[in-house]
Amino acid sequence: MRQSSAALLRAAFALLRALFIAPSGRHHRRASRVRRYADPKPATRALPPAVPRLSAPREVFPADDLPLVRPYYTAHEQQRRQAAATARLQQWAAPRIPAPRMPEGDLLAPTPVTFDDLAKVTRVWIAQQERKQAAGVGA
């Protein structure tokens, strides 16, 4: 018990010492000194040459004569819309295959396929019920 409490106090005192004592060691000295290759005076840069100003246009065009959208861009957008519409139409016209359903009920019983099969199975079931009643077996 004494050893664990001593270890705990030692860690707490080390933390307090680290918080209140000024940093020392090689990392602190290296970060605080001025490098030999650093130049203390600021460097002066030459200004870039002045950008030439554009002259006024020689001709003025009315805005109604200029197309706002380039023709090749309009054609590209129209082709994109046409391709999307064609893809949608093909998706709607494609035959739809229903998702498979899990069968319910008795999986071993034969499944009637048509109405005639259902009528036949019903007649067989009625005949079985009549035979059971005739034999005296309760249904």
Could you please describe the fold and organization of this structure?
This protein is mostly helical. Helix content is 50%, strand content 0%. It has helices at residues 2-20, 26-32, 71-93, 115-135. The radius of gyration is 47 Å and the shape is flat. The protein starts with a helix and ends with a helix. The mean pLDDT is 78.
How would you describe this structure in keywords?
single chain; mainly alpha
Separation of the first and last Cα atoms: 83 Å
What would the principal axes of the Cα set say about the shape? flat
Number of helices: 4
Helix content: 40-55%
Q: Report the mean per-residue pLDDT as an integer.
A: 78
Please state roughly what percent of the residues sit in beta strands, choosing from under 5%, 5-15%, 15-25%, 25-35%, 35-45% or over 45%: under 5%
The number of E-state strands comes to: 0
Our Rg estimate from Cα atoms comes to 47 Å
- Give me the secondary-structure category: mainly alpha
Biggest sheet character? none
Assembly classification: single chain
Which H/E pattern describes the elements? HHHH
Low-confidence stretches: none
